Amino acid sequence: MKFRIDRDVLADAVAWTARTLPVRPPVPVLAGMLIEAGDTLKLSSFDYEVSAQMTMDIDADEPGTALVSGRLLAEISRSLPAQPVEITTDGAKVTLKCGTAKFTLLTMPVEDYPSLPAMPPAAGMVGSDEFAAAVAQVAIAAGRDDTLPMLTGVRLEIEGETVTLASTDRYRLAVRQLKWKPEQPDFSAVALVPAKTLSDTAKSLTSGAEVSIALAAGGSGSGEGMIGFEGGGRRTTTRLLDAEFVKYQSLWPKETSAVAEVETGPFAEAVKRVGLVAEKNTPVRLSFRQGEVVLEAGSGDDAQAVEVLGASLEGQDIDVAFNPHFLLDGLSAIGSDVARLAMTTSTKPAVMTGKPANEEDPDYRYLIMPIRLSS
Fold first, then answer.
1. DSSP state of 62
2. Are 213 and 237 within 8 A, CB to CB?
3. Gap between the Cα atoms of 354 and 86, Å rounded
4. Is 329 found in the same domain as 237?
């Protein structure tokens, strides 16, 4: 194997492919990155759960395949000088030459490396930037407790031209709808994707204009139990979570007694300031009145903070308390200059949205459970 490649192109491709390398590989070869050079250059990694493959055009002088330590290759590629890189194989070694720098890596047996899973059938296309933004809005509410796998995923529901993303950790729920272009107009599928994998993948596929989502219709058939994403020469697959997602539609409040609107930026800054004195697991208290909201934290002999902001209120005056971190997550995700909070009582969940244009139904909703105030 022998080929030349631009240093920045190599470093970017290796870094992206190395994302899925396992920290503690169950077998040594899974710490490797597979390099396949021919008419194209393919870099692959796999940990039995997630696979990643980067493809780019090159013109190899000598085609070939090699398996080397992925993390070491990533560190070397990142540190090379800004000059073309020549990569060659010599027996059981791979040599990288770049300017006056030269590295020699030992190879692993290619024949021991597992085959990457095949992509499920292509289901449709979605704009890469919108998809990344939508996933980021929803992934913040996913749980991080691996003993409750159904809460660590993002549920994808696809019906025709509409994709609905949802996640919850029991204390908040985030739901985002977006449009996409399905391969079949009546396409329907449901999948529960690990939130961290989906978040990392969506952010990393914005180099192309669109992302192709590969998923079996109805979650069965060819590619069952897998979902794939492809864009900008990058493709990745991940196994789906085999768990039942909560029936979240029943969680939305059926009525509201108060709707408040506050400018998002000042509100978030005030929550950060007041939250400085909130001890672990203690809330920021919000008192909504006509024309204002009073933010408070701390009590008794502890440090205390109070701040007053302008706010509009329709309905009854209401006092409610939230985890400040969860409140800030929602404010950062709504993507609007004005935050709207629809509330029922101090003990029932509130729904945060941006202020919709033309009073349309918002495409993003963030439900947050209040913390009961001691009387």
1. B
2. no
3. 52
4. no
For residues 99 and 79, is the Cβ–Cβ distance under 8 A?
Answer: no
- Residue 130 sits in the same domain as residue 239: yes
Cα separation of the two ends of the chain: 74
Q: Please, which residues bridge with residue 350 across strands?
A: 368
Q: Give the residue among 128, 155, 127 at the shortest CA–CA distance from 141.
A: 155
Closest by CA to 84, choosing from 97, 71, 68, 65, is 97
53, two tokens: 């493959």
d(CA 57, CA 46): 22
CATH of the domain at 312: 3.10.150.10
Do 322 and 257 share a domain, yes or no? yes
3-state helix, strand, coil in the chain (%, to 5): 25, 40, 35
Q: Which ranges of 154-227 does DSSP label H, i.e. alpha helix? A: 195-204
> Residue 353 in 3-state DSSP?
strand
- Predicted TM-score of the model (pTM): 0.90
- Cα 319 off chain centre by: 33
Q: Angle at CA 148, nearest 5°, toward 145 and 151?
A: 85
**Residue bearing tokens 């490649």:** 5
Kindly report, residue by residue over 46-68, the tens digit of the pLDDT: 999 999 999 999 989 999 999 99
The residue type found at 35 is I
Q: 29-33 long-range contacts, Cβ below 8 Å, gap at least 24?
A: 29/67, 29/108, 29/109, 29/112, 29/113, 29/114, 30/114, 31/69, 31/70, 31/71, 32/67, 32/68, 32/69, 32/70, 32/108, 32/113, 33/67, 33/68, 33/69, 33/70, 33/73, 33/74
316 in any annotated domain = yes
- For the segment 221-242, what is each residue's pLDDT rounded down to a tens digit? 555 799 999 999 999 999 999 8
Q: What is the largest CA-CA distance in the chain?
A: 78
